[in-house]
Amino acid sequence: MSDLQTTYYKTPIGIAKIEGDKNGIQSISVLDDDTSTILSSSKEIPAYLQDCVSQLDEFFTGTRKEFNLKLNPQGTAFQQSVWEELLNIPFGSTRTYLEQTKQLGDVKAIRAVASANGKNPIWIVIPCHRVVGSDGSLTGYAGGIWRKKWLLEHESGAKQQTLF
Is the pTM of this model over 0.85? Predict the structure, then answer.
């Protein structure tokens, strides 16, 4: 029997669904559908998830640059190693997929690394949004490229302005 608990948290770029238990946060995902009914029916935040919600709130208000959470992502040993390496990318920085594969010790595994990044179950906290194409392009983000752009701009402190 699982003690997995769930809560929802409204962020500037969508509703985050947070799941975890006493062993740590298992997933943070962003929902694209209309979730107003979820938020209105959402009860108090489960104890195991309160710190995660607080830290995400601090991240979005600009007062947190590093997360200090107990994580428990579910995946293969290879995926776990890729996600662990993502945690080494500093706030406000980016790394290319090639640089990430070099850090992992196998440049030939670039497609597998990119695939593992795409399966990262812990949105923002394990910062796969900080990985970009070799030419600096914003590629491959499960939450949508517009969210990746928003997150990178948020971390850089520079907000892009549009004319129209």
Answer: yes
